[in-house]
Write a structure and sequence with these properties.
The complex is a heterodimer of chains A (257) and B (305). Chain A is mainly alpha-helical and 257 residues long. In chain A, 76% of the residues lie in helices and 2% in strands. In chain A, helix 4 runs antiparallel to helix 8 and helix 7 runs parallel beside helix 11. In chain B, helix 3 crosses helix 4, helix 3 runs parallel beside helix 5 and helix 7 crosses helix 10. Classes of the chains: A mainly alpha (257), B alpha/beta (305).
Chain lengths: 257, 305
Amino acid sequence: MSPREQYVAFMTIVRKEIKRYLRIWTQTLLPSAITMSLYFVIFGSLIGSRIGEMGGFTYMQFVVPGLIMMAIVTNSYSNVVSSFFGSKFNNSVEELLVSPTPNYIILLGYIVGGISRGLMVAVVVTIVSLFFTHLHIHSYFVVVVVVLLTSTLFALAGFINAVFANSFDDITIIPTFVLTPLIYLGGVFYSMDLLPAFWAGVSKLNPLVYVVNAFRYGVLGVSDVSLTFAFGMITLFTIVAFTYSLHLLNSGKRLRQ
Amino acid sequence: MIPALTIENLRKVYGGGFEALKGISLEVQQGDFFALLGPNGAGKSTTIGIICSLVTKSAGKVSVFDVDIDRDFAAAKKYIGIVPQEFNFNQFEKTMDIVVNQAGYYGLAPGLARQRAEKYLKALGLWDKRDTPSRMLSGGMKRRLMIARALVHEPRLLILDEPTAGVDIEMRRTMWDFLKKINAEGTTIILTTHYLEEAEALCRHIAIINHGLIVEHTSIKSLLRRLHREVFILDCVEDTPENVAIEGFTVRRVDSHTLEVEVEKGQYINQVFDELDRHGIHISSMRNRANRLEEMFVNLVEGAA
């Protein structure tokens, strides 16, 4: 395929993905807005007012970056895992597999679909958060880079989950039993300073710690971990996940007989 | 002229060790209407799956319009349009979107994609359903949607895996007419079917596959010429006598207005008419008792078993 044809194929996948989650917006966009509003009300406003300051900021200001990142992570992951597994389940993935679209374009199309949903929900959650607190962005560059890298990483993770999933149960196991605990233990609601030294060390094995803290740095200018190390880890995870996803597509594992 | 499809020593061994294809070779010429027949599990769908990349081959070579799929599968895929046996589109997407998206996967710009989608949805009688979610379509409409989707990039080779399964007789005839038309316009067509009358009505060449091997690869005409015996049913205008005998032929009286006559290879059916005329029996119509190709198919498949 010529570069122009590849671009058309890529945009076709992206448009299809966006159309899909907008068509079912009550299942894809609305739940995050409602859940995050509840977090803001309960943890930020009601409980947060009694906690006082954390990391030099009001508790509400402290949790907002983590909650936005939580929405990005879950939505970019969910979009790709449900869309790609759905197309495997109803065999419509064959529409792509029989076409001359290169595998990396297929992968990029799904990733950008996942990123776009993550971003859309992030914008909604940020707007909701403005009803509860004032947000001052410390570094737009860090915010943009972290958001793009994180949504890419978790879109890829969703893709890998979808390739290996055999049933709809399989696409809920990872988000429920792995992703959600890692997010909660990733420093969304607390500073690592509060943890005993041992648990603070253990937490550094959690990739969500780097994601949440890098984003918090972009918004508030504070982080529990080194920003350079955080960027390095997110980039490394993203490269590994992309390479492995492309390998899965090229080998046809669980996609071709 | 280069062949539309060349298959050489194609083998497929599945994970469990089952050998679905045992080294088949096949050639389909440009412009042909080709039937790939065989009982269930013979290897037809595996062969088609390999040609369009849904199944990975274990060994052998496949070329589409002289493009080796191992060297440039993307270029080969552009030549192919595939209509699978099972519905494989997103049931929640609209008819028009399914066809337009498929065009996009082949690199057709959105404007041209919509133009082509309109052309083929109209040709297949689905234009009125363009905004209908595909799950709301009838079985026949879904089959036609898959044909429109397969044609949207205007492939030179169209492969249909049992396209008329579960389609009513009228719709089947309409689909036959459509396929004949696009074949006449130059598209090479490969068809698998369980309806042997379909293969006889549409196809010029045939390959019969059984237990992963090609047991016959010839023209339909030459295959039918090999039939040793045909049984004709004759509908008579008047009541026929109890014992009708024609020298050299086996004649059976089915009922008062129907006779069955066996005609061996080398005999002429004119002799039957002459004799019946002499007996004062007039024939209003005549047909084969069984589909001729079906008889040959059963002979070949059972012979190879």
